[in-house]
């Protein structure tokens, strides 16, 4: 885990994270002095489930997946996070807890880290940070509940349609003929996300493509061509 610095980056991590948006330039500089920096290679673990941790991880550059192992020994992906997002907020709001997920770099990833001690000091001086952390916790809880509801349905087409729409909201870029999504996950990982097999993902993608709802461009890009029709699968 080589060290790096975001001091010379076009946009330091402290300015990319919404929880620090209300702070002054001098306060952000003080936080920057507290931050530790690390780089992770693609596939490398940042934190493992059941491992003790007291760190808030901020993604300076790259993408990270958060996942848990099911009782059946299969990976269940919970979140896919990218530049400017963070995780480990529960490690800051509680003490002596073990991580309830694992985090892996999906690409070469640069991370900024703040310890619980530093964050407690910052929250004491800036209560607004605590409120924003709690809002993030609430948002992620809602996402997890929606994921659980989606996984509870027996229809894989509904699950996969939900996933495509979610990825489109987060990673989609408008272009002629639809919404282009650079997929952050492999086919195997997409299957893990929605609790189906890789073969099912490929088969349902092909069906949606035959129906004119999406277009596949290689293995890493998908174009949503008919969002209204895709949304009908989720209601």
Give the SSE layout.
Blueprint: H1 13-16, H2 25-34, E1 36-40, E2 45-47, E3 55-61, E4 63-69, E5 75-82, E6 86-87, H3 89-93, E7 102-105, E8 109-115, H4 116-125, H5 127-152, H6 156-171, E9 172-175, E10 178-182, H7 187-194, H8 198-210, E11 214-217, E12 221-224, H9 227-232
Antiparallel strand pairs: 1-8, 2-7, 3-6, 3-8, 4-5, 4-7, 9-10, 10-12, 11-12
Helix pairs in contact: 4-5, 7-8
Short descriptors:
235 residues, alpha+beta, Jelly Rolls, Arc Repressor Mutant, subunit A, 2 domains, four-stranded antiparallel β-sheet, 9 helices, 42% helix, globular
Structure explained in plain terms:
Residues 19-140 form the Cyclic nucleotide-binding domain. InterPro entries: cNMP-bd_dom, cNMP-bd_dom_sf, Env_Response_Regulators, HTH_CRP, RmlC-like_jellyroll, Tscrpt_reg_HTH_Crp-type_CS, WH-like_DNA-bd_sf, WH_DNA-bd_sf. Pfam families: cNMP_binding, HTH_Crp_2. Keywords: Activator, DNA-binding, Transcription, Transcription regulation. The structure is a single chain. The protein is of the alpha+beta class and 235 residues long. The chain folds into two domains: 13-151, Sandwich (Jelly Rolls); 155-232, Orthogonal Bundle (Arc Repressor Mutant, subunit A), CATH 1.10.10.10. Helices cover 42% and strands 26% of the residues. The chain contains nine helices and twelve strands. It has helices at 13-16, 25-34, 89-93, 116-125, 127-152, 156-171, 187-194, 198-210, 227-232, and strands at residues 36-40, 45-47, 55-61, 63-69, 75-82, 86-87, 102-105, 109-115, 172-175, 178-182, 214-217, 221-224. The strands form three sheets. Strands 1-8-3-6 form a four-stranded antiparallel sheet. A four-stranded antiparallel sheet has the order 2-7-4-5. The chain starts with 12 loop residues before the first helix and ends with a helix. The model has no long low-confidence stretch (mean pLDDT 85).
């Amino acid at each position: 885990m080589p060290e790096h610095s975001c001091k010379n980056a076009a946009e330091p991590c402290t300015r990319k994270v919404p929880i620090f948006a209300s702070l002054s330039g001098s306060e952000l500089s003080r936080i920057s002095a507290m931050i530790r920096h690390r780089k992770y290679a693609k596939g490398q673990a940042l934190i493992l489930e059941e491992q003790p941790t007291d760190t808030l991880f901020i993604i300076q550059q790259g993408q990270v997946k958060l996942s848990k192992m099911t009782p059946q020994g299969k990976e269940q992906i919970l979140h896919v996070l990218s530049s400017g997002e963070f995780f480990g907020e529960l490690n800051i709001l509680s003490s002596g807890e073990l991580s309830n997920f694992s985090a892996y770099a999906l690409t070469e990833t640069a991370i900024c880290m703040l310890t619980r001690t530093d964050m407690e000091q910052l929250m004491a001086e800036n209560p607004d940070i605590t409120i924003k952390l709690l809002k993030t916790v609430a948002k992620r809880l809602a996402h997890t509940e929606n994921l659980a509801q989606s996984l509870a349905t027996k229809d894989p087409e509904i699950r996969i349609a939900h996933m495509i729409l979610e990825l489109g909201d987060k990673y989609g870029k408008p272009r002629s003929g639809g919404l282009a999504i650079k997929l952050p996950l492999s086919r195997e990982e997409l299957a893990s996300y929605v609790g189906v097999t890789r073969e099912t993902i490929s088969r349902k993608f092909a069906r949606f493509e035959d129906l004119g709802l999406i277009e596949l461009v290689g293995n890493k890009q998908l174009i949503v061509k008919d969002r209204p029709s895709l949304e009908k699968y989720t209601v």
